[in-house]
Sequence to fold (165 residues):
Amino acid sequence: MGDGVMTRIIYVLVLTVFMSGMMDGVRESTAQRVLPELPFVELHKADYTQNSRFTKKQTKVITSQADYAAELAIYTTAAPVSVDFTNGRVLLVDMGVRNTGGYSIAVTSVNATRNSVIANISLTKPGKYCATTQSLTNPYQFVFIPSLDEILISETVETTRCKAF
Fold:
């Protein structure tokens, strides 16, 4: 190889190592940055559907009053709240049917990013020694998120600790 080719190869390698180090710094600073929280409004929440219909675990972004009313009717006889869909959307979080009580689901916070929002969802289940109702449950929640950006979901699962008798 000629000296010019070798010089270019060394230049590319040095540039690659330098850019890799720069990107690590960007990744690190993004991970450490605290994302601003958005307020959200709980519209409906329950551990059971009122009409004894059971649903599957899901999250659903609802973008119109008519779709919100139709989806809500699957869960409850409560009237839908009037929502301004020009300023935000409704998020349904549904844990699906569970074989006992002691389960819950909740949006705990919503964080804004540059082009999206992250809805942080906590799913709670009963621990080994927890006393629970022996009936089917179907925890769900509807919340209004005041953003038109894409809604991303981050779930955490927590287990309730109970003492043995």
About this structure: Helices lie at 3-32, 65-75.
